[in-house]
Specification:
The protein is mostly helical. The protein is 71% helix and 2% strand. The protein contains 20 helices and four strands. The strands form two sheets. A two-stranded antiparallel sheet has the order 1-2. It has a two-stranded antiparallel sheet with strand order 3-4. Strand 3 and strand 4 form a beta hairpin.
């Protein structure tokens, strides 16, 4: 409860009645607004007296309280109990008094403050002159203008600071992006340098491995080659056995119909092109140590258009072409070539027979050529592939060996070509496995369809050659047979069917050699090999034309255009 209510409870009954009577009689608004509470504490009392002129006096009762006895305190307790009973009956009156007193206590200070403020304002208005009021108004207006300017300056400065912050942020972002891009470039360069260093280290290790290990590997490979050479010799022994067992006259050429060996001067014109091609190959074999640019131009300027074709082809294919000759400089091949040449020179012009069926010179040439081809093939197959041999090289070598086993491919030796012909035949194995060395040096492997096409072209050319050769042999044994009587217009063995079948024979040989040369296409080395094949075939035809009668040569205009009698 509020303080006035508590004070009323503690008053005696008479005072309560007097207070009720005073309330019932009524008071003025001034008395209601400023209630006069009674002294609630007998020791330190505080009383507020209000005069009409709004003056306050504080009366302090400093007299100490008297000491009461127990009897009086008990009597006092009885009076308070009676007072509480009376207060219960007078609850409504007390509640009204409490509400009025609380309103008065809360509203009195506010009213006083408001009244004082109003009085101060009236006093200031009465004391201020109009001039002072104008000065104050001007100062206020000026202050407002200054404040607006300050606010506008602050706003502009904030906008400028925001723009500068945004521009600085964009600059920072651009610089960060540039730094990131430069860092990425530096990282990429570092990665590239690391990869290059790893590659160089790997290449160095590979070179060390190649330089340290090949001796033992080459020993093993040469042992394998030696075993394969023995296998080739066994194949040659089978060929010899075939010649011994064969009892028919078709197994060998009839030596009675062959003319004598001609002079060296008569074959110079025919073999100038093989000699030139051989010298050109040897010339470019030396390019392994000397570049092509250091060669003198007179080496290539005396043989005409064919020289130009060969030189251009070899220059464009020099890098891979020299890789082929690198394999040709292996000591076993050099030794085999020397032995092969010596054997041909020793047995040149030897017309002795091994038994009654085998021509010794032909047998020696076949055996030596087959061994050369086998040796070059297996060395080329395992030279650059230490683990798995190149099956394309092996297939090509097998096809060439199958052709070399045919003794009908050696008519120039049996017709007596002289020393240049012997040199040509001794170096012919190099031209036979030149494509094999190319495939091995450049690690070229043909697919299944490529090898099937190679075999099919080779078989077609060989069948054409073999069929024409069989007709030639049959005609040489019996040139006046009734089967060829309708073609016999010259009256001797030169005319007739020989003019028909000789050129298909050379055409078959040309197709066979082209099948070997096509393995290196579309490189320029293929053009070189094709050109050499055509030249060798054409030159063989020219040699045969020289050997034959002038009667038949007068009737043909070219060695590749046959004379067909009508």
């Amino acid at each position: 409860m509020d303080r006035p209510a508590r004070s009323l409870r503690r008053l005696p009954a008479r005072s309560a009645k007097s207070a009720e009577r005073s309330l019932s009689k009524g008071r003025t608004g001034k008395d209601v607004d400023s209630p006069k509470p009674r002294i609630s504490s007998p020791r330190f009392a505080r009383r507020t007296l209000k005069e009409p002129d709004q003056k306050e006096t504080i009366i302090k009762n400093a007299t100490p309280p008297r000491k009461r006895s127990r009897s009086r305190s008990s009597a006092r307790k009885r009076q308070e109990a009676v007072k509480d009973v009376k207060e219960i009956s007078d609850n409504e009156v007390v509640d009204k008094m409490n509400s009025r007193s609380s309103k008065a206590t809360t509203a009195a200070p506010v009213a006083k403050l408001v009244s004082k403020i109003k009085e101060g304002i009236d006093h200031v208005r009465n004391s201020v002159s109009p001039e002072v009021e104008d000065v104050v108004r001007r100062s206020l207006s000026r202050f407002e203008g200054v404040t607006t300017e300050v606010v506008s300056n602050i706003v502009t400065r904030r906008g400028l600071s925001r723009q500068s912050r945004a521009s600085s942020a964009s600059v920072v972002i651009n610089s960060m992006s540039n730094v990131a891009s430069s860092q990425s470039k530096i990282e990429e360069e570092i990665i590239l340098t690391e990869e290059q260093s790893v590659l160089t280290n790997h290449i160095g290790t590979l070179k060390e491995e190649k330089s340290s290990a090949p001796r033992d590997a080459k020993k093993v490979n040469y042992l394998k080659v030696f075993g394969l050479v023995l296998l080739g010799m066994a194949i040659c022994a089978l060929v010899v056995l075939f010649h011994v067992v064969c009892s028919k006259d078709d197994c060998r050429l009839s030596l009675s119909n062959l003319p004598k060996a001609l002079e060296y001067s008569q074959y110079f014109d025919s073999y100038i092109w093989p000699v030139y091609s051989l010298s050109l190959l040897l010339l470019f074999a030396g390019c392994r140590f000397t570049s092509v640019r250091q060669r003198r131009p007179q080496h290539f300027s005396i043989f005409g258009a064919i020289v130009a074709i060969l030189v251009i082809s070899l220059i464009f294919a020099s890098q891979r072409y020299l890789g082929c000759f690198r394999l040709l400089t292996i000591p076993p091949l050099i030794g085999a070539t020397i032995i092969h040449t010596l054997v041909l020179v020793l047995y040149a012009g030897n017309s002795s027979m091994l038994g009654s069926k085998v021509h010794l010179e032909t047998l020696v040439h076949i055996t030596s050529s087959v061994l050369m081809i086998l040796l070059g093939t297996f060395i080329g197959a395992i030279e650059n592939a230490r683990t798995t041999p190149n099956f394309t090289v092996l297939l090509l070598g097998g096809l060439q060996v199958s052709t070399a086993l045919d003794h009908l491919l050696l008519p120039p030796l049996m017709l007596g070509l002289g020393p240049i012909g012997i040199l040509w035949l001794s170096l012919r194995p190099f031209f036979l496995f030149l494509s094999q060395t190319y495939l091995s040096a450049n690690n070229v492997v043909l697919g299944t369809y490529g090898m099937a096409g190679l075999m099919s072209v080779h078989v077609i050319g060989y069948v054409l050659y073999r069929y024409s050769s069989s007709l030639k042999i049959f005609f040489l044994q019996d040139p006046y047979s009734s089967k060829f009587s309708k073609y016999n217009v010259c009256g001797d063995f030169i005319g007739g069917a020989w003019g028909v079948v000789r050129h298909p024979q050379l055409a078959g040989l040309l197709v066979t050699e082209l099948s070997w040369a096509c393995t290196v296409l579309p490189d320029f080395l293929g053009l070189v090999l094709i050109l050499l094949s055509v030249l060798s075939t054409v030159l063989l035809a020219r040699t045969a034309d020289r050997r034959l009668s002038r009667t038949y040569r007068a009737k043909i205009t070219s060695s590749l255009i046959p004379y067909i009698p009508v």
